[in-house]
Amino acid sequence: RKVQKQSAVVLPIGMTSMFTSIMFYITTKCI
Fold it and tell me: pLDDT tens for residues 1-28?
């Protein structure tokens, strides 16, 4: 049960980090 809860928390973090890296890539390309 602890592993399930952990994975549920890790998923949104991975999504946000992926979104942040994409935004960072776009901003660096624009500049």
Answer: 666 676 667 777 788 899 999 999 999 9
Domain count, the chain: 1
Question: What pLDDT score was predicted for residue 11?
Answer: 73
Handedness of CA 15, 18, 20, 23 (dihedral sign): negative
How high is the pLDDT of residue 1? 61
Residue range(s) defining the domain that contains residue 19: 1-31
Tell me whether residue 1 is exposed, middle or buried, using C-beta atoms within 10 angstroms of its C-beta: 0 to 12, 13 to 18, 19 or more.
Answer: exposed
